[in-house]
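Hi all, long-time lurker, first post. I run a small reading group and we've been trying to get comfortable going from sequence to structure in the token notation. Rather than ask abstract questions, I figured I'd post a concrete chain and ask someone more experienced to write out its structure so we can walk through it together at our next meeting. Sequence below, copied exactly:
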Amino acid sequence: MAVALATENSRVFRPRRALALLFCLALLALASLAVALAVGSLEVGVRDFAAILRGKPSLAAEVVLGLRLPRALAGFACGGLLALAGALMQTLLKNPLADPYVLGVSGGAGIGALLAILFGFSGLMLDSCAFLGALGALFLVFGLARGDNSWTQARLLLTGVIVASGCGAVVTLLLSIAPEARLRGMLFWLMGDLSQTASPWVGLVALGVALLLSLPFARELNLLARSAETARTLGVRVGRLRGLVYLVAAFATAAAVVSAGSIGFIGLIVPHLTRLLAGSDMRLLLPASALLGGALLMAADTLSRTLIAPEQLPVGVLTALIGAPLFLFLLARAGRPPR
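-- Answer (accepted) --
Happy to help. Here is the structure in token form:
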């Protein structure tokens, strides 16, 4: 039996409280953005920001608008996509240990990206190859899991784990045959790196689309989280809903991985943290997870480029170092007997 990491919250959904929480999380995201824009090898103060808002050209304006702002927005989009996908996957599989990478989409994107780097591609070509790899893994898992048109959580999970393992073997093979000149770029991509993100708009649009597709089905997801039988009794088409949730989660994961590589623990930890703040109602959990995930990844990326400046850490390494002890803390907290 899976161990629940977040306490189920049966509080009645209150629109005012939900709006207040979303407003606070939006403020947290704005604070993370402000720190990301201000901190670095070139300190940007209040006067510099005022000059930038007036359109006055300066070195600070070039650094903020040309480098830090696109990277920070890409970090917000990737963090939001991973947290949203994690919340959907945990509901779909009814497993608190599920994360966006459990179904092999990340592995497929990794194969596509490493092949692109191996052949010297970059920029749009690299992103296109990563997306095609993610799409291939998506349809492979989708087709194998459907089988005779019967959907079960166990079948979907096992299929995803097997495909992910196979993708991991191919990734290892590519790393072993890669020339040394390409190896560093491959490793940074696999560990998660926002420094090579060309534009944040693809990720931001993908986040908006994923939210627009998932929020209309939030009530049905609440019923599915209780049990499939309850959902069917109340008129929910469970098979169609599971397929939609899987496709949206896979799309969100693919968009995040294409933009920044594999960034761990955001999709696993953030939904549990959000449940502690907001409860388990999907109408609030989904947008709140997106905001919190975006804010946390922006903050982690700011640390990754400033801790050992002028060198940079892959942001995926930092999220893993922070996420692992936090996960253990949540696990220990869930295991304590109620007072």
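A couple of things your group might point at:
The longest helix spans residues 59-93.
DSSP finds 14 helices and no strands in the chain.
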